[in-house]
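can u do me a favor
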């Protein structure tokens, strides 16, 4: 039976983790279509593997998951080559990049269809229509494609009831790549499971790529279903820790506590992403239960200590600078590590204002560390996402900022680092501002090395702290080469770039 290739392009210098994007897509066609999973994180030359496979098998569709950033380095050239050598093969892209940037993707003329958001219903229906030679795709939900030069967006479905979706075909993945290979060592455990238990987020922060796709909706699997899946991965493949990859795992206190009650006896350590104002509403008993059940660290979007800017970012909810500080203190009392991410360098009317805000955010971050020295700090530089109509994005556009219109331009030197949110080259951010942010980050990571880098043994931590202390205390961040040299020598890992996986 003609088959489908599902491709997970390589993510930059990070250890492979369970490719949930293509695994969930595989679940939607399991038993109906033959499919082959190819993971760029585990293939020396995935392009050659895919083309050889197509030359020797009857393949009618190539499905590729694409996040912005390094995954484009493989997704673009491989898709282009396939269209050249196998023009009859339909190329379908899904994931955050094509969903948020459909025009350059479809204008490339080698991507036929984009799955806009969840593909659980859209993909099997699209496959059936393609197999039966149908050309009218209007009834396929969550689809974007070109029709006589016009971009067609079909009806967007609400988020599906996650408990009703088919189980992930881990057995099938195991045929292509041993699942054990994906359970890497992190500071959470020696066999860390990457698991995704919900879609979307109830909030509309205007710097977040989730918003244009899910529009403040959220749906999650029940605690029971999550527990069953995790128990299966523990018993079958020896998983002993969990990274929840949800955009917002902690939306429901009831679900979190229910899951904690279920997972506690399994003695697994886990990490997930949540909101400060949501979790701050949790009862002390709930936080204690979470900690007792293995919740060690929570990734939290703190963004900035400036309430005006939180408002401009449509952070919504009740989050404030004062709450971020009190929450850092509260988390210390429950021995849960708050991993707070900050977004520096948002646009303002004058260069002076942009620079002043960066100084304030640096001062605020140091306050958080003095309140809770165990708080982990992640620093991002604001890189625009197309949240049309939001005050922030309108401001961005007014500065003349525009995304590349040509797909290949997204992998040229200028733009390939754009989405890493480290140096986005936005018009209002001057190079000296980026240097200040990066130098502060170096000194901060020198004085407080991340707990997640297992290779940073104590004597290395103490040495880094020693040489960074004067700079950190005096606020002297220029040219911190002595710290950089040691961080390079000891291959210091930043979790936001490389994830937690060390082996
Ligand atoms: C796991 C993950 C990673 C992993 C890599 C995972 C991998 N694929 O190997 C690591 C840690 C390496 C990583 C790194 C980065 N990531 Co990341 N990552 C995620 C995360 C947390 C989960 C993705 C996932 O597995 N979701 C679960 C699956 C089931 O959902 P899904 O991908 O949405 O898939 C569904 C649909 O989208 C659709 N679909 C998706 N793909 C496909 C393909 C086909 C063929 C079809 C039919 C359908 C389809 O159907 C699926 C089922 O319904 C997401 C946030 C999130 N919760 O989704 C961020 C996220 C995608 N990453 C993000 C970013 C920015 C990055 C980095 C650039 C960060 C950095 N500064 O370095 C790097 C670079 C990545 C790269 N390109 O190499 C952003 C993207 C923002 C944007 N502008 O679009 C996100 C959205 C986080 C955020 N909230 O901002 N990431």
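np, heres the sequence
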């Amino acid at each position: 039976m003609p088959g489908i290739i599902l491709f997970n392009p390589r993510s930059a210098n990070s250890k492979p983790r369970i490719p949930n994007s293509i695994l969930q897509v595989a679940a939607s066609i399991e038993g109906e279509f033959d499919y082959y999973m190819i993971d760029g994180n585990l293939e020396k030359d995935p392009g050659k593997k895919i083309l050889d496979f197509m030359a020797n098998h009857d393949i009618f569709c190539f499905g590729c998951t694409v996040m912005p950033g390094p995954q484009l380095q493989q997704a673009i050239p491989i898709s282009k080559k396939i269209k050249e050598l196998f023009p009859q093969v339909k190329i379908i892209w899904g994931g955050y990049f094509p969903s948020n940037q459909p025009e350059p993707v479809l204008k490339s003329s080698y991507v036929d269809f984009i799955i806009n958001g969840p593909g659980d219903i859209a993909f099997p229906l699209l496959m059936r229509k393609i197999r039966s030679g149908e050309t009218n795709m209007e009834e396929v939900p969550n689809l974007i494609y070109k029709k006589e030069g016009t971009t067609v967006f079909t009806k967007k479905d609400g988020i599906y009831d996650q408990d009703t979706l088919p189980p992930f075909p881990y057995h099938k993945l195991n045929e292509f790549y041993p699942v054990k290979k994906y359970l890497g060592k992190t500071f959470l455990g020696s066999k860390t499971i990457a698991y995704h238990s919900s879609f979307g987020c109830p909030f509309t922060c205007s710097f977040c790529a989730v918003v244009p796709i899910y529009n403040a909706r959220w749906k999650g699997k029940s605690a029971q279903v999550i527990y069953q899946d995790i128990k299966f991965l523990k018993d079958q493949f020896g998983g002993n820790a969990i990274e929840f990859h949800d955009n917002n795992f902690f939306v429901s206190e009831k679900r979190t506590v229910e899951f904690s009650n279920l997972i506690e006896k399994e003695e697994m350590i886990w990490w997930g992403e949540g909101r400060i104002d949501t979790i701050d509403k949790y009862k002390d008993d709930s936080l204690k239960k979470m900690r007792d059940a293995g919740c060690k660290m929570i990734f939290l979007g703190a963004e900035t200590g400036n309430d005006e800017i939180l408002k401009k970012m449509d952070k919504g909810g009740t989050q404030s600078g004062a709450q971020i500080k009190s929450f850092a203190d509260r988390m210390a009392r429950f021995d849960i590590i708050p991993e707070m991410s900050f977004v520096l360098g948002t646009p303002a009317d004058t260069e002076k204002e942009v620079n002043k805000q960066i100084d304030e955010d640096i001062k605020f971050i140091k306050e958080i560390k003095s309140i809770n020295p165990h708080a982990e700090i992640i620093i991002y530089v604001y890189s625009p996402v197309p949240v049309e109509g939001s005050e922030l994005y309108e401001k961005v556009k007014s500065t003349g900022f525009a995304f590349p219109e040509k797909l290949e331009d997204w992998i040229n030197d200028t733009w390939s680092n754009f989405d890493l949110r480290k140096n986005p080259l936005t018009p209002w951010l001057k190079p000296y501002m980026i240097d200040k942010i990066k130098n502060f980050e170096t000194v901060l990571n020198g004085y407080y090395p991340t707990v997640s880098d297992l290779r940073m043994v104590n004597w290395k931590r103490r040495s880094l702290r020693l040489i960074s202390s004067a700079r950190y205390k005096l606020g002297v961040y220029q040219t911190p080469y002595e710290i950089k040299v040691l961080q390079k020598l000891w291959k210091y890992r930043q979790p936001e770039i490389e994830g937690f996986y060390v082996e």
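The CA atoms of residues 338 and 375 lie 5 Å apart. hope that helps!!
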